[in-house]
Every structure is written in structure tokens, then in C-alpha cells.
Amino acid sequence: MELTAQQLRGFDGLDASKPIYVAIRGAIYDVSTGKGFYGPGSPYAVFAGREASRALAKMSKSEDDVCGDLDGLSDKELGVLADWENKFQAKYPVVGRLAS
């Protein structure tokens, strides 16, 4: 499955009949089993239905960082992102790709 960023926004947990998706480096993960983390009102809800690579790399929940732009990230931040990516791969299924 391929989704645009706009389509991905529809999987933010606000519609309980739909799964919750988070994208990292263009891979879309179904994080529905982590609803307590990514569902509405949860600590990481800002990532739900979004491409969260930059924010995860920077350990940020700022709206400005919730995007896929990796330009200007340090090696340390890219390492943090790789750690997050490994955690997601181990815990959540990949259900598609973000359209470029």
C-alpha cells in the first residue's frame, strides 16, 4: 500500500474504526497495538498519522520537527533515528510506504 502524507493523516487515531499509522523513513508502521503511546491524548499522539523521522531523531515532540526531512541532522541524531527504526521494526508491522 502506498499513501500520500495527506492520506496518512487519516490514520491518526481519531477515527476508532481505523488503525493508527506512523511513518519512519517512508515506511508506514501500524502502531495500533501501541494506542496508549500513539492514540489521541497519549504522550506521542503528535506522531500518529504522520512521517515522524526528524522528530524521533531529535527526540522532539515539536510540530515543526514532525516530518521526514533529515537535512542537517547530526550523526548522533541519525543514530537515534536508527535506534527508533529498529524498535519499530521489532514491534510493529510495516503496512506500506509513504508516496514521495
UniProtKB/TrEMBL annotation:
Molecular function GO terms recorded: steroid binding
Span of domain Cytochrome b5 heme-binding: 3-99
Q: Which InterPro entries match?
A: Cyt_B5-like_heme/steroid-bd, Cyt_B5-like_heme/steroid_sf, MAPR/NEUFC/NENF-like
Gene Ontology CC: one annotated term: endomembrane system
Q: Which SMART domains match?
A: Cyt-b5 (SM01117)
Checking PANTHER family in the record gives: CALCUTTA CUP-RELATED (PTHR10281:SF76), MEMBRANE-ASSOCIATED PROGESTERONE RECEPTOR COMPONENT-RELATED (PTHR10281)
The UniProt entry's sequence similarity note says: Belongs to the cytochrome b5 family. MAPR subfamily.
Name of the protein this chain belongs to: Cytochrome b5 heme-binding domain-containing protein
The uppermost taxa in this organism's lineage are: Eukaryota, Viridiplantae, Streptophyta, Embryophyta, Tracheophyta
